[in-house]
Amino acid sequence: MQQAEYGKKIRLFRKKAGLGLRNLANLAGLSPAAISAIEHDRSSPTLATLHKILKALNTDFADFFSSYQTLDHTPVFAHEDMTAISDKCRKYTLVFPKREDIQFEISMETITSFEDECEWEVHDCDVGGVVLSSKHAKIEVEGQGEWPLAQGDAFYIKAGCKHRLVNLERAAMNLITVYYPANY
Predict the structure, then answer these.
(1) What pLDDT does residue 68 have?
(2) CA distance 131 to 155
(3) Number of neighbouring beta carbons within 10 Å of residue 176
(4) What is the mean pLDDT of each successive set of 10 residues along the chain, which is 184 residues long?
(5) Residue 33: per-residue pLDDT
(6) Beta-carbon neighbour count of residue 94 at 10 Å?
(7) Which residues, listed in sequence order, are joined to residue 62 by a DSSP beta bridge?
(8) Given 8, 122, 137, 159, which residue has the most CB atoms within 10 angstroms?
(9) CATH number of the domain at 3-59, please?
(10) CB 90 within 8 A of CB 49
(11) Is the dihedral of CA 176, 179, 182, 184 positive or negative?
C-alpha cells in the first residue's frame, strides 16, 4: 500500500467503527484538522501517528496493512511475504502474519540518521529489542531517564511507558523489536 492510500483506508476503518472525525481525533490525541488532512491525503502520518490512529480504531498495523490473514500454521515465514511499512524516518517489516497461535509480534526496524524529531510512543504491551547496527543511539523513558544504546545492546520497556528511541549517528540504525503480548 502506498502512503497516499493511507487516508482512504483510515476513513474506511473510521466509518466502519462508527466514529466521527472529532471522535477519532479525541481518541487518538490528535486534532480533527490533522485527521482530516490525513484522510484527504494532504498529509502523510508518521508511523507513530498512524499507530495512535489505529489504536484509537481498535486495530493494528497487521490489520491495516494485511490483505489477508494466513490460516496455514507453517513455522516458516518467507521474507517476501512480510509486510513492510515506512515513513521518512522509519521502516518496519512485520515478521509474523496475524495468527491466533502466535503470542508475540516481531518487527525488523530501520531508523534513519539523526532522527532528532522522533515521536514519543506508548504501547499497550511490553516492548523489547536488540540493536543490530549502531554505534551511537539512545532510549528515553519519560520520567525515568535516558540511556545510551549501541550495537549488541538490548532494551525492555513495560507496557504504558512513554518512550522513544533516537539514532544519533549518520548511518541508519537496524534493530529487532518484540512486542508481548501481540496486539492482536
Answers:
(1) 46
(2) 9
(3) 16
(4) 76 89 93 92 88 90 68 78 84 86 92 74 94 93 96 96 92 95 73
(5) 92
(6) 20
(7) none
(8) 137
(9) 1.10.260.40
(10) no
(11) negative
